[in-house]
Amino acid sequence: MEEPVIVLETQKINAWFGKDQVLFDVSGRIPKNRVTAIMGPSGCGKTTFVRTLNRLHLMTPGARSSGTVLLDGIDTSTMDIVDVRKHIGMVFQRPNPFPTMTVYENVLAGYRLTGQRLSREKADQIVEATLNKVGLWAEVQSKLFKAGTSLSGGQQQRLCIARTIAMEPAV
């Protein structure tokens, strides 16, 4: 059996909130095209660890981290933050569709936020294909231009998953 290609590797990740260290030398490898689970009891640092991967942790006042995150062998600290977040997608535990955007706009939000322009035809294709992937197309095709927050909680979560996978992130 072939060795899997490693798409993401962490080396000695540490994280702090103020003076409190919450992660201690976390190292690991995430293979390409495989499901990887990060498990542990509540409060053990799973979310903080995942947030260090695309530098979201640093958006919290007083937070800092150390260690290395390699994306396809490249140290993400040398990459533009927009590129890092384009390649390392994240879906949060609670649904968080952008409240001022429609369902359609939510799916395409990553393109807008990264300054990528799409033709209407290409945008329509991405929206339909992505919503189909998350099993939402049949439920919302008549609601594409209503607020994403008008959907049920479960639909909002699938919309957020669609928003992430529409960008085809590496992780």
Q: Tell me the CATH topology of the largest domain.
A: Rossmann fold
Helicity level: 25-40%
CATH architecture of the largest domain: 3-Layer(aba) Sandwich
- CATH class category of the largest domain: Alpha Beta
Which strands sit side by side, in order, in the main sheet?
Answer: 2-1-3-4
Mean pLDDT: 94
Order of helices and strands: EEHEEHHHHHH
Number of strands: 4
**Which strand-content bin applies to the residues?**
15-25%
Low-pLDDT ranges: none
CATH superfamily of the largest domain: P-loop containing nucleotide triphosphate hydrolases
Outline: globular
Please state the oligomeric state of the protein chains shown.
single chain
Distance between the termini: 23 Å
How does this structure look, described?
By secondary structure, this protein is of the alpha+beta class. The chain folds into 2 domains: 6-87, 3-Layer(aba) Sandwich (Rossmann fold); 103-165, no CATH class. It is 33% helix and 20% strand. The protein contains 7 helices and 4 strands, in the order E-E-H-E-E-H-H-H-H-H-H. It has a 4-stranded antiparallel beta sheet, covered by helices on one side. Helix 5 crosses helix 7. The longest helix has 14 residues, at 120-133. 26% of the residues are buried. The model has no long low-confidence stretch (mean pLDDT 94).
